[in-house]
Amino acid sequence: MQTCPGRSRQFWRPEDIYDLPCPHCGREVELFKTDIERRCPHCGGTVLNPRADLSCAEWCPSAKECLGPVLYGRLKEKEREEDLERLLSVVGEDEEVRELFLRLFRENRDPERLFDPDLLKELEGERPDLVERATKYYVEFRKKAG
Asked: Which parts of the chain are beta strand (E)?
């Protein structure tokens, strides 16, 4: 695989490499914009990078291979959690639908999807009103997401 432009340092700017204080010992630790975390060379503590920039993983078809399965999985899970928060903001005060989406989110096993729509369909026979409301909110959420 060719080196991607986002991870190849030849395309970086000077501000893409920076020092941050270790939260454990206070000494400076060098971080790159693509580091999620780094071990402090002074005390061995973990330094999280609040400025990590892996936005290319959102659109790049090689992101999984480039980042590796663990980091890619973390990013996808973070995206799912952010999508869930946006969906719940569309739902508003409808507690029954909120609880349904939270349950569907927790029970989902596909890291590429917010929830499994088949699980929602299974409820249609016993709670058509709830499924109808949830579907309406989900459609509204998708329209806002673009």
From this structure: 17-21, 28-32, 37-39, 46-48
Neighbours of 60 (CB within 10 A): 17
Cα angle for residues 27, 37, 53 (degrees, 5° grid): 115
Whole-structure pTM value: 0.64
> What does 107-131 look like in DSSP terms, one character per residue?
H---TTSSS-HHHHHHTTTT-HHHH
Residue 138 has a CB neighbour count (10 Å cut-off) of 20
Distance CA 46, CA 101 (A): 34
Determine what percent of the chain is predicted with pLDDT higher than 70.
95
In eight-state DSSP terms, residue 57 is G
Domain spans of the chain, in order of start: 9-70, 77-145
Summarize the confidence of residues 34-56 as an average pLDDT: 87
